[in-house]
Amino acid sequence: MTGLQQKMFQELESQKGLKLAHNHALSYVKQIFDRNVYPSESALKNLARFNEDLPRETGNPETILDLLNTYGGPATVATSGSRYFGFVTGSTLPITLASKSLSTVWDQAPAMHVTSPIGSKLETVVEDWLRKLFQLPESTVAGFVSGTSLANFCGLAAARFHQLSKLGWNVNEKGLNGSPRLRVVAGRQCHSTILKAISLLGFGVDHIEWVPTDDQGRIIASEIPQLDETSILILQAGNVNTGSFDDFNTICKSAQEKGAWIHIDGAFGLWAQATTNLSHLTKGMEHADSWAVDAHKTLNTPYDSGIVLCKNPEALKSALHMTGSYIITSPQRDGMFYTPEMSRRSRIIELWAALRYLGKAGVDQLVETMHHRAIQFKEELQQIAGFRVLNEVVFNQVLVRCDTDEITEKVMAHIQDQRECWVGGSAWENKKTIRISICSWATTSADVSRSVASFRKAITAVTHE
User: Fold this and answer.
1) Which of 183, 294, 179 shows the shortest CA–CA distance to 233?
2) pTM (2 decimals)?
3) 100-355 is a CATH 3.40.190.10 domain
4) Which residues of the chain have pLDDT under 50?
Protein backbone atom coordinates (compact mmCIF):
# COMPACT_ATOMS: atom_id res chain seq x y z
CA MET A 1 0.00 0.00 0.00
CA THR A 2 1.38 3.41 -0.95
CA GLY A 3 1.54 6.33 1.42
CA LEU A 4 -1.15 8.14 -0.57
CA GLN A 5 -3.47 5.14 -0.37
CA GLN A 6 -2.95 4.84 3.37
CA LYS A 7 -3.62 8.55 3.84
CA MET A 8 -6.89 8.44 1.90
CA PHE A 9 -8.11 5.26 3.62
CA GLN A 10 -7.55 6.97 6.97
CA GLU A 11 -9.42 10.07 5.79
CA LEU A 12 -12.36 7.97 4.63
CA GLU A 13 -12.42 6.00 7.87
CA SER A 14 -12.30 9.10 10.08
CA GLN A 15 -15.05 10.81 8.01
CA LYS A 16 -13.74 14.19 9.16
CA GLY A 17 -13.84 15.62 5.66
CA LEU A 18 -17.34 14.33 4.97
CA LYS A 19 -18.64 15.67 8.27
CA LEU A 20 -16.99 19.05 7.77
CA ALA A 21 -18.41 19.38 4.25
CA HIS A 22 -21.83 18.36 5.58
CA ASN A 23 -21.68 21.02 8.30
CA HIS A 24 -20.62 23.69 5.82
CA ALA A 25 -23.48 22.66 3.53
CA LEU A 26 -26.03 22.87 6.34
CA SER A 27 -24.81 26.34 7.29
CA TYR A 28 -25.10 27.46 3.66
CA VAL A 29 -28.65 26.15 3.35
CA LYS A 30 -29.67 27.76 6.63
CA GLN A 31 -28.80 31.27 5.43
CA ILE A 32 -29.65 30.96 1.73
CA PHE A 33 -32.91 32.93 2.00
CA ASP A 34 -31.38 35.82 3.96
CA ARG A 35 -28.09 36.40 2.15
CA ASN A 36 -27.46 38.68 -0.81
CA VAL A 37 -28.71 37.05 -3.98
CA TYR A 38 -25.53 38.05 -5.81
CA PRO A 39 -22.01 38.03 -4.26
CA SER A 40 -20.71 41.25 -2.72
CA GLU A 41 -17.79 43.09 -4.27
CA SER A 42 -15.51 41.92 -1.47
CA ALA A 43 -16.55 38.30 -2.03
CA LEU A 44 -15.72 38.63 -5.72
CA LYS A 45 -12.34 40.20 -4.96
CA ASN A 46 -11.56 37.41 -2.50
CA LEU A 47 -11.74 34.88 -5.32
CA ALA A 48 -8.15 35.92 -5.99
CA ARG A 49 -7.33 33.66 -3.05
CA PHE A 50 -7.60 30.73 -5.46
CA ASN A 51 -4.81 32.10 -7.65
CA GLU A 52 -2.00 29.77 -6.61
CA ASP A 53 0.40 27.32 -8.15
CA LEU A 54 -0.49 23.65 -8.11
CA PRO A 55 0.85 22.33 -4.76
CA ARG A 56 3.90 20.08 -4.87
CA GLU A 57 2.64 17.78 -2.12
CA THR A 58 -0.71 16.32 -1.05
CA GLY A 59 -2.99 18.55 0.96
CA ASN A 60 -5.07 18.55 4.11
CA PRO A 61 -8.81 17.86 3.54
CA GLU A 62 -9.95 20.22 6.29
CA THR A 63 -7.82 23.07 4.92
CA ILE A 64 -9.15 22.53 1.40
CA LEU A 65 -12.78 22.42 2.52
CA ASP A 66 -12.37 25.48 4.73
CA LEU A 67 -10.84 27.36 1.80
CA LEU A 68 -13.84 26.48 -0.36
CA ASN A 69 -16.28 27.43 2.36
CA THR A 70 -14.57 30.69 3.34
CA TYR A 71 -13.94 32.08 -0.12
CA GLY A 72 -16.09 29.97 -2.42
CA GLY A 73 -19.38 30.04 -0.52
CA PRO A 74 -19.71 33.85 -0.39
CA ALA A 75 -18.97 34.04 -4.14
CA THR A 76 -21.86 31.79 -5.11
CA VAL A 77 -25.06 33.10 -6.66
CA ALA A 78 -28.08 32.22 -4.51
CA THR A 79 -29.93 30.43 -7.29
CA SER A 80 -31.40 27.99 -4.78
CA GLY A 81 -32.92 30.87 -2.82
CA SER A 82 -36.24 32.60 -3.38
CA ARG A 83 -35.36 35.87 -5.13
CA TYR A 84 -33.20 34.82 -8.06
CA PHE A 85 -35.13 35.53 -11.25
CA GLY A 86 -32.41 35.23 -13.89
CA PHE A 87 -32.07 32.88 -16.88
CA VAL A 88 -35.02 30.62 -15.85
CA THR A 89 -32.67 29.00 -13.36
CA GLY A 90 -34.53 26.68 -11.01
CA SER A 91 -34.05 26.30 -7.28
CA THR A 92 -33.67 22.92 -5.57
CA LEU A 93 -36.35 21.05 -3.65
CA PRO A 94 -35.16 20.02 -0.17
CA ILE A 95 -35.69 16.34 -1.02
CA THR A 96 -33.43 16.68 -4.05
CA LEU A 97 -30.64 18.25 -2.02
CA ALA A 98 -30.81 15.29 0.34
CA SER A 99 -31.01 12.69 -2.42
CA LYS A 100 -28.15 14.33 -4.31
CA SER A 101 -25.98 13.94 -1.21
CA LEU A 102 -26.75 10.25 -1.29
CA SER A 103 -26.20 9.94 -5.04
CA THR A 104 -22.86 11.75 -4.70
CA VAL A 105 -21.66 9.11 -2.26
CA TRP A 106 -23.03 6.33 -4.44
CA ASP A 107 -21.28 7.87 -7.49
CA GLN A 108 -23.04 5.64 -10.00
CA ALA A 109 -22.24 5.41 -13.71
CA PRO A 110 -25.65 4.63 -15.26
CA ALA A 111 -24.49 3.72 -18.75
CA MET A 112 -25.73 0.14 -18.51
CA HIS A 113 -27.76 -1.96 -16.13
CA VAL A 114 -24.61 -3.87 -15.25
CA THR A 115 -22.83 -0.65 -14.18
CA SER A 116 -25.76 0.59 -12.08
CA PRO A 117 -28.84 -1.57 -11.46
CA ILE A 118 -30.39 1.20 -9.34
CA GLY A 119 -29.77 3.77 -12.08
CA SER A 120 -31.37 1.49 -14.66
CA LYS A 121 -34.38 0.81 -12.45
CA LEU A 122 -35.03 4.46 -11.58
CA GLU A 123 -34.71 5.53 -15.22
CA THR A 124 -37.29 2.89 -16.15
CA VAL A 125 -39.68 4.04 -13.43
CA VAL A 126 -39.29 7.76 -14.13
CA GLU A 127 -39.69 7.23 -17.88
CA ASP A 128 -43.08 5.67 -17.17
CA TRP A 129 -44.05 8.43 -14.72
CA LEU A 130 -43.17 11.15 -17.23
CA ARG A 131 -45.02 9.41 -20.04
CA LYS A 132 -48.17 9.41 -17.92
CA LEU A 133 -47.64 12.85 -16.38
CA PHE A 134 -47.27 14.47 -19.80
CA GLN A 135 -49.96 12.19 -21.33
CA LEU A 136 -47.67 11.02 -24.12
CA PRO A 137 -48.04 7.96 -26.39
CA GLU A 138 -47.30 4.59 -24.80
CA SER A 139 -44.31 4.09 -27.10
CA THR A 140 -42.53 7.18 -25.72
CA VAL A 141 -39.03 6.65 -24.30
CA ALA A 142 -36.83 9.04 -22.32
CA GLY A 143 -33.15 9.90 -22.30
CA PHE A 144 -31.75 11.63 -19.22
CA VAL A 145 -29.23 14.24 -20.31
CA SER A 146 -27.55 17.38 -18.97
CA GLY A 147 -30.23 19.84 -20.11
CA THR A 148 -32.55 20.97 -22.86
CA SER A 149 -29.63 22.06 -25.03
CA LEU A 150 -28.63 18.42 -25.37
CA ALA A 151 -32.23 17.18 -25.30
CA ASN A 152 -33.00 19.36 -28.34
CA PHE A 153 -29.94 17.92 -30.06
CA CYS A 154 -31.12 14.37 -29.32
CA GLY A 155 -34.67 15.00 -30.49
CA LEU A 156 -33.52 16.59 -33.72
CA ALA A 157 -30.94 13.83 -34.25
CA ALA A 158 -33.78 11.31 -34.01
CA ALA A 159 -35.74 13.43 -36.49
CA ARG A 160 -32.81 13.49 -38.90
CA PHE A 161 -32.33 9.72 -38.72
CA HIS A 162 -36.03 8.95 -39.12
CA GLN A 163 -36.78 11.36 -41.95
CA LEU A 164 -33.73 10.29 -43.94
CA SER A 165 -34.51 6.61 -43.33
CA LYS A 166 -37.92 7.12 -44.92
CA LEU A 167 -36.06 8.34 -47.98
CA GLY A 168 -33.85 5.24 -48.04
CA TRP A 169 -30.77 6.91 -46.53
CA ASN A 170 -28.98 5.61 -43.42
CA VAL A 171 -27.19 8.68 -42.08
CA ASN A 172 -25.17 6.62 -39.59
CA GLU A 173 -23.55 4.68 -42.41
CA LYS A 174 -23.51 7.19 -45.26
CA GLY A 175 -23.23 10.51 -43.45
CA LEU A 176 -24.70 13.71 -44.84
CA ASN A 177 -22.56 13.99 -47.95
CA GLY A 178 -24.91 13.34 -50.86
CA SER A 179 -27.93 12.74 -48.65
CA PRO A 180 -31.45 13.82 -49.60
CA ARG A 181 -32.16 17.35 -48.41
CA LEU A 182 -34.28 17.74 -45.31
CA ARG A 183 -36.27 20.88 -44.57
CA VAL A 184 -36.04 22.48 -41.12
CA VAL A 185 -38.96 24.78 -40.31
CA ALA A 186 -38.87 26.96 -37.18
CA GLY A 187 -40.39 30.10 -35.72
CA ARG A 188 -38.44 33.35 -35.71
CA GLN A 189 -38.44 33.29 -31.90
CA CYS A 190 -36.94 29.83 -31.42
CA HIS A 191 -34.36 29.49 -28.67
CA SER A 192 -30.65 29.77 -29.41
CA THR A 193 -30.10 26.15 -28.33
CA ILE A 194 -32.21 25.11 -31.30
CA LEU A 195 -29.82 26.98 -33.57
CA LYS A 196 -26.88 25.26 -31.88
CA ALA A 197 -28.42 21.83 -32.41
CA ILE A 198 -29.20 22.61 -36.05
CA SER A 199 -25.59 23.67 -36.57
CA LEU A 200 -24.13 20.61 -34.85
CA LEU A 201 -26.36 18.26 -36.82
CA GLY A 202 -25.18 19.70 -40.13
CA PHE A 203 -28.47 21.21 -41.28
CA GLY A 204 -27.04 24.73 -41.41
CA VAL A 205 -28.79 27.72 -39.87
CA ASP A 206 -28.89 29.43 -43.27
CA HIS A 207 -31.22 26.71 -44.54
CA ILE A 208 -33.91 27.15 -41.88
CA GLU A 209 -37.32 28.01 -43.30
CA TRP A 210 -38.36 30.77 -40.93
CA VAL A 211 -41.99 31.21 -39.89
CA PRO A 212 -43.19 34.64 -38.70
CA THR A 213 -44.32 34.98 -35.08
CA ASP A 214 -46.86 37.22 -33.37
CA ASP A 215 -46.21 39.90 -30.75
CA GLN A 216 -45.82 37.21 -28.06
CA GLY A 217 -43.37 35.08 -30.03
CA ARG A 218 -45.89 32.42 -31.06
CA ILE A 219 -45.65 30.85 -34.49
CA ILE A 220 -48.38 32.11 -36.81
CA ALA A 221 -49.92 28.80 -37.86
CA SER A 222 -51.26 30.10 -41.16
CA GLU A 223 -47.73 31.14 -42.17
CA ILE A 224 -46.21 27.66 -41.85
CA PRO A 225 -45.12 26.52 -45.34
CA GLN A 226 -46.52 23.39 -46.93
CA LEU A 227 -44.90 20.48 -45.10
CA ASP A 228 -43.97 17.05 -46.41
CA GLU A 229 -42.07 13.90 -45.49
CA THR A 230 -38.75 15.71 -45.70
CA SER A 231 -39.79 18.29 -43.10
CA ILE A 232 -38.77 18.78 -39.47
CA LEU A 233 -41.02 21.30 -37.71
CA ILE A 234 -39.74 22.87 -34.48
CA LEU A 235 -42.27 24.31 -32.02
CA GLN A 236 -41.94 25.90 -28.59
CA ALA A 237 -43.54 25.44 -25.17
CA GLY A 238 -42.50 28.55 -23.28
CA ASN A 239 -40.81 31.40 -25.10
CA VAL A 240 -37.69 32.39 -23.18
CA ASN A 241 -38.81 36.04 -23.03
CA THR A 242 -42.60 36.04 -22.94
CA GLY A 243 -43.34 32.50 -21.78
CA SER A 244 -45.74 32.05 -24.72
CA PHE A 245 -46.71 28.68 -26.23
CA ASP A 246 -47.22 27.75 -29.85
CA ASP A 247 -50.68 26.48 -30.81
CA PHE A 248 -49.93 22.76 -30.79
CA ASN A 249 -53.55 21.76 -31.14
CA THR A 250 -53.87 23.59 -34.44
CA ILE A 251 -50.44 22.79 -35.83
CA CYS A 252 -49.42 19.27 -34.80
CA LYS A 253 -52.12 17.07 -36.30
CA SER A 254 -51.89 18.77 -39.68
CA ALA A 255 -48.09 18.54 -39.72
CA GLN A 256 -48.26 14.91 -38.67
CA GLU A 257 -50.62 14.06 -41.52
CA LYS A 258 -48.12 15.56 -43.98
CA GLY A 259 -45.36 13.26 -42.71
CA ALA A 260 -43.36 15.96 -40.94
CA TRP A 261 -41.44 15.24 -37.74
CA ILE A 262 -42.54 17.61 -34.96
CA HIS A 263 -40.14 18.53 -32.17
CA ILE A 264 -41.20 20.66 -29.19
CA ASP A 265 -38.63 22.67 -27.24
CA GLY A 266 -40.23 22.85 -23.80
CA ALA A 267 -37.32 23.58 -21.47
CA PHE A 268 -39.46 25.09 -18.72
CA GLY A 269 -42.92 25.25 -20.28
CA LEU A 270 -43.63 21.58 -20.93
CA TRP A 271 -44.50 21.19 -17.24
CA ALA A 272 -47.72 23.13 -17.88
CA GLN A 273 -49.05 19.85 -19.27
CA ALA A 274 -48.87 18.38 -15.76
CA THR A 275 -51.20 21.00 -14.25
CA THR A 276 -54.94 21.39 -13.93
CA ASN A 277 -55.30 25.06 -14.82
CA LEU A 278 -52.41 25.63 -17.24
CA SER A 279 -52.60 22.52 -19.40
CA HIS A 280 -54.64 24.42 -21.99
CA LEU A 281 -51.29 25.97 -22.98
CA THR A 282 -49.96 22.59 -24.10
CA LYS A 283 -53.14 21.14 -25.61
CA GLY A 284 -52.23 18.95 -28.57
CA MET A 285 -48.55 18.53 -27.65
CA GLU A 286 -49.00 14.76 -27.50
CA HIS A 287 -49.21 14.74 -31.31
CA ALA A 288 -45.54 15.73 -31.63
CA ASP A 289 -42.75 13.20 -32.18
CA SER A 290 -40.12 14.42 -29.71
CA TRP A 291 -39.96 16.77 -26.77
CA ALA A 292 -37.15 18.43 -24.78
CA VAL A 293 -37.57 19.56 -21.19
CA ASP A 294 -35.48 20.44 -18.14
CA ALA A 295 -35.97 19.06 -14.66
CA HIS A 296 -33.53 21.61 -13.21
CA LYS A 297 -35.77 24.52 -14.16
CA THR A 298 -39.47 24.28 -13.31
CA LEU A 299 -39.25 21.00 -11.38
CA ASN A 300 -36.40 22.34 -9.21
CA THR A 301 -34.02 19.39 -9.27
CA PRO A 302 -30.30 20.15 -8.82
CA TYR A 303 -28.18 20.96 -11.85
CA ASP A 304 -27.82 19.39 -14.21
CA SER A 305 -30.91 17.50 -15.33
CA GLY A 306 -32.59 17.46 -18.73
CA ILE A 307 -34.85 15.01 -20.53
CA VAL A 308 -35.42 14.08 -24.16
CA LEU A 309 -38.69 12.27 -24.86
CA CYS A 310 -39.33 10.50 -28.15
CA LYS A 311 -42.34 8.46 -29.26
CA ASN A 312 -40.21 6.53 -31.77
CA PRO A 313 -37.74 4.49 -29.69
CA GLU A 314 -35.85 3.14 -32.69
CA ALA A 315 -35.31 6.60 -34.15
CA LEU A 316 -33.79 7.88 -30.90
CA LYS A 317 -31.67 4.81 -30.23
CA SER A 318 -30.47 4.61 -33.83
CA ALA A 319 -29.56 8.31 -33.88
CA LEU A 320 -27.48 7.90 -30.72
CA HIS A 321 -26.15 4.49 -31.76
CA MET A 322 -23.07 3.02 -30.07
CA THR A 323 -21.47 -0.41 -30.07
CA GLY A 324 -18.31 -1.95 -28.63
CA SER A 325 -16.94 -5.40 -27.89
CA TYR A 326 -16.86 -4.55 -24.20
CA ILE A 327 -20.49 -3.37 -23.98
CA ILE A 328 -22.64 -5.65 -21.82
CA THR A 329 -26.30 -5.29 -22.71
CA SER A 330 -29.16 -6.68 -20.66
CA PRO A 331 -32.94 -7.23 -20.86
CA GLN A 332 -33.24 -4.29 -18.47
CA ARG A 333 -32.73 -0.67 -19.47
CA ASP A 334 -29.25 0.34 -20.63
CA GLY A 335 -29.43 4.13 -20.39
CA MET A 336 -26.52 4.84 -22.73
CA PHE A 337 -28.67 3.93 -25.74
CA TYR A 338 -30.93 6.92 -25.11
CA THR A 339 -28.26 9.61 -24.70
CA PRO A 340 -25.13 10.75 -26.59
CA GLU A 341 -22.94 10.15 -23.55
CA MET A 342 -21.81 6.87 -22.16
CA SER A 343 -20.30 8.52 -19.10
CA ARG A 344 -22.77 10.70 -17.24
CA ARG A 345 -23.89 11.60 -13.75
CA SER A 346 -26.68 9.58 -12.15
CA ARG A 347 -29.00 12.60 -12.15
CA ILE A 348 -31.95 10.23 -12.28
CA ILE A 349 -31.70 9.75 -8.51
CA GLU A 350 -32.71 13.33 -7.72
CA LEU A 351 -35.31 13.36 -10.49
CA TRP A 352 -36.91 10.22 -9.11
CA ALA A 353 -36.84 11.68 -5.58
CA ALA A 354 -38.47 14.92 -6.76
CA LEU A 355 -41.34 13.15 -8.52
CA ARG A 356 -41.74 10.56 -5.73
CA TYR A 357 -41.97 13.39 -3.19
CA LEU A 358 -44.25 15.74 -5.14
CA GLY A 359 -46.61 13.30 -6.78
CA LYS A 360 -49.09 14.62 -9.35
CA ALA A 361 -50.69 17.05 -6.91
CA GLY A 362 -47.34 18.48 -5.84
CA VAL A 363 -46.14 19.04 -9.40
CA ASP A 364 -49.43 20.79 -10.15
CA GLN A 365 -49.12 23.07 -7.11
CA LEU A 366 -45.43 23.79 -7.70
CA VAL A 367 -45.95 24.91 -11.29
CA GLU A 368 -49.14 26.87 -10.69
CA THR A 369 -47.61 28.73 -7.74
CA MET A 370 -44.81 29.98 -10.00
CA HIS A 371 -47.48 31.29 -12.36
CA HIS A 372 -49.31 33.03 -9.50
CA ARG A 373 -46.09 34.74 -8.37
CA ALA A 374 -45.48 35.92 -11.95
CA ILE A 375 -48.97 37.42 -12.07
CA GLN A 376 -48.30 39.15 -8.74
CA PHE A 377 -45.01 40.54 -10.07
CA LYS A 378 -46.82 41.94 -13.11
CA GLU A 379 -49.61 43.52 -11.07
CA GLU A 380 -47.29 45.17 -8.54
CA LEU A 381 -44.97 46.52 -11.23
CA GLN A 382 -47.91 47.99 -13.13
CA GLN A 383 -48.60 50.17 -10.10
CA ILE A 384 -45.21 51.88 -10.41
CA ALA A 385 -44.85 54.72 -12.90
CA GLY A 386 -42.06 54.11 -15.39
CA PHE A 387 -42.50 50.35 -15.86
CA ARG A 388 -44.41 48.69 -18.67
CA VAL A 389 -45.09 44.94 -18.79
CA LEU A 390 -44.78 43.85 -22.42
CA ASN A 391 -46.10 40.31 -22.38
CA GLU A 392 -49.22 38.38 -21.60
CA VAL A 393 -48.16 36.59 -18.41
CA VAL A 394 -49.42 33.12 -19.28
CA PHE A 395 -46.78 31.13 -17.39
CA ASN A 396 -43.75 32.21 -15.34
CA GLN A 397 -42.12 34.95 -17.43
CA VAL A 398 -42.55 38.71 -16.98
CA LEU A 399 -40.98 41.03 -19.54
CA VAL A 400 -40.56 44.64 -18.41
CA ARG A 401 -39.37 47.83 -20.06
CA CYS A 402 -38.85 51.45 -19.04
CA ASP A 403 -39.32 54.46 -21.33
CA THR A 404 -35.98 54.10 -23.15
CA ASP A 405 -33.18 51.59 -23.62
CA GLU A 406 -30.85 53.75 -21.53
CA ILE A 407 -33.25 54.01 -18.60
CA THR A 408 -34.05 50.29 -18.81
CA GLU A 409 -30.38 49.32 -18.60
CA LYS A 410 -29.65 51.78 -15.79
CA VAL A 411 -32.63 50.56 -13.77
CA MET A 412 -31.57 46.94 -14.21
CA ALA A 413 -28.04 47.79 -13.07
CA HIS A 414 -29.46 49.50 -9.95
CA ILE A 415 -31.59 46.45 -9.18
CA GLN A 416 -28.62 44.13 -9.52
CA ASP A 417 -26.43 46.39 -7.38
CA GLN A 418 -28.97 46.28 -4.54
CA ARG A 419 -28.60 42.46 -4.45
CA GLU A 420 -32.09 42.05 -2.99
CA CYS A 421 -33.00 40.07 -6.09
CA TRP A 422 -31.35 39.36 -9.41
CA VAL A 423 -32.87 39.85 -12.86
CA GLY A 424 -31.29 39.73 -16.29
CA GLY A 425 -31.67 41.73 -19.45
CA SER A 426 -32.92 40.77 -22.86
CA ALA A 427 -34.18 42.35 -26.06
CA TRP A 428 -37.69 42.25 -27.45
CA GLU A 429 -38.64 43.75 -30.79
CA ASN A 430 -35.18 45.37 -30.87
CA LYS A 431 -35.68 47.14 -27.54
CA LYS A 432 -33.90 46.55 -24.22
CA THR A 433 -35.94 44.79 -21.57
CA ILE A 434 -35.72 43.36 -18.06
CA ARG A 435 -36.63 39.69 -17.88
CA ILE A 436 -38.12 38.19 -14.73
CA SER A 437 -38.26 34.39 -14.49
CA ILE A 438 -40.13 32.88 -11.55
CA CYS A 439 -38.60 29.45 -11.15
CA SER A 440 -38.23 28.64 -7.44
CA TRP A 441 -40.44 26.59 -5.15
CA ALA A 442 -39.46 28.98 -2.35
CA THR A 443 -40.61 32.29 -3.88
CA THR A 444 -43.39 33.68 -1.69
CA SER A 445 -45.72 36.63 -2.03
CA ALA A 446 -43.45 38.50 0.39
CA ASP A 447 -40.42 37.76 -1.80
CA VAL A 448 -42.15 39.28 -4.81
CA SER A 449 -43.14 42.43 -2.91
CA ARG A 450 -39.62 42.73 -1.49
CA SER A 451 -38.18 42.42 -4.99
CA VAL A 452 -40.64 44.91 -6.46
CA ALA A 453 -39.48 47.37 -3.81
CA SER A 454 -35.99 47.19 -5.31
CA PHE A 455 -37.51 47.99 -8.72
CA ARG A 456 -39.19 51.03 -7.17
CA LYS A 457 -35.94 52.20 -5.59
CA ALA A 458 -34.10 51.73 -8.87
CA ILE A 459 -36.55 53.69 -11.04
CA THR A 460 -36.64 56.48 -8.46
CA ALA A 461 -32.85 56.68 -8.36
CA VAL A 462 -32.49 56.70 -12.15
CA THR A 463 -35.22 59.26 -12.85
CA HIS A 464 -33.78 61.64 -10.22
CA GLU A 465 -30.20 61.50 -11.47
Assistant:
1) 183
2) 0.97
3) no
4) none
